[in-house]
Amino acid sequence: MYFSIANLFFFAILLETAFSTEIPVFHAETRTPSTICDGVLYNSAATEACRSLAWFYVFKRQTLGTDYPHIYKNFEKFEFSPDVQPPWYMFPMVENGFWELGMDPGPVRCVIGMGGFLAGSIYHKKDSNKFEKCQDVLE
């Protein structure tokens, strides 16, 4: 193999550029926040339990029973993290542990997107079928 001075010079510049240029990396929030929904605090463990179980079933393309997780269409036009892309799925969130089949799903849902990243949390206001957005709180 023949290398000219010009080729070696070009290769050296290419290597220097490759190691000095920042590579764009996807940075979704890695800390799971606590969230306040209708005045009730759901700690980060509850939020993470909801997110991880929702992703488990979405990834396997299964549901727990017949209802969850299911597609969330965001009719309310909530703004979620721009790092988390649709399709979005919703899953019941409980204060302690994991939601299980047979339990009342309650009013609170976590919403996940592509890759199982948490988009946010929402809840049904009392006596309403409409959703409100929960307030995330990083601990």
**Strands of the biggest beta sheet: in what spatial order?**
3-4-5-6-7
The CATH class name reads Alpha Beta
* Topology, number of strands: 8
Structural class: alpha+beta
Strand percent estimate: 15-25%
Main beta sheet strand tally, sense and closure: 5 strands, antiparallel
Enumerate how many helices there are, as a single number.
2
Number of domains: 1
Brief overview:
The protein has 139 residues and is of the alpha+beta class.
Topology:
Layout: H1 5-20, E1 34-37, E2 40-42, H2 44-60, E3 70-72, E4 88-92, E5 108-112, E6 118-124, E7 131-133, E8 135-137
Antiparallel strand pairs: 1-2, 1-8, 3-4, 4-5, 5-6, 6-7
Enzyme class: lyase
EC number: 4.6.1.24
Keywords: Disulfide bond, Endonuclease, Hydrolase, Lyase, Nuclease, Signal
What does this structure look like?
It holds the Pfam family Ribonuclease. The chain has one domain: Nuclear Transport Factor 2, Chain: A, CATH 3.10.450. A hairpin with a 5-residue loop joins strand 5 (108-112) and strand 6. It contains two helices and eight strands. It has a five-stranded antiparallel sheet, with helices on one face. The protein has helices at 5-20, 44-60; strands at 34-37, 40-42, 70-72, 88-92, 108-112, 118-124, 131-133, 135-137. The relative contact order is 0.21.
Describe the structure using short key phrases.
RNA binding; alpha+beta; endonuclease; lyase; five-stranded antiparallel β-sheet; 139 residues; globular; Nuclear Transport Factor 2, Chain: A; 24% strand; N1-like; single chain; hydrolase
